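hiii, so i know i said id send this last week but things got crazy w the move. better late than never?? heres the sequnce for the chain we talked about at the cafe, plus the structure i predicted for it. fair warning i was half asleep when i ran it
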Amino acid sequence: MSSPPREGIRFFAGGLRAAIEVNLMMKYVKQIMIIAAVCFAGEAVHYFVPLPIPASIYGMLILFLLLETGVLKVESIREVSTFLLDTMIIMFIPAGVGLMEYWGSIKDIWWKLIIVIVAVNAAVFAVSGWITQAVGKKVGGK
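okay and structure toks below
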C-alpha cells in the first residue's frame, strides 16, 4: 500500500479548517440575525402601540418572553450576546464625551448631580434588595 500524497492531506486539512471557520462565522451571523429580528419586532410593536415606551424595551420584553417560553434557546444567541455584554462599556464613551462637551453648563451644579446620582442609586439598591427578599420569602416559603 502506498501512502497518500502529503499535498492531498494538507489540502484536505486546509479545506476542513476553512469549512470549520465558515461554519463558525455562519453561526455568528445567525445569532446576529436572531437578535436583529427581535429588535425589529420591538420597533414594529413600538410603531403600532401608542404608548410612550421605547422600542428597545419592547425588544427586551420580546426576547425575555421568547427565552422564558423556550421558543428561543439561550444557546441560539449565547456567543453574540456574550460579546455584546463584554463590549457594552464602549457604548458609554459617547456619554462621557458629552459630559465633557457640556462641562461649562454643569460645572456650577456638578456636586448636586453627584448627590442625586448617589441617592437614586442607593434607593434602587435598597428597593431591589427588599423586592428580592420578599420574592425569596414568598417563593422559598421562609
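btw Residues 6-86 form one domain. thought thatd interest u
miss u guys!!
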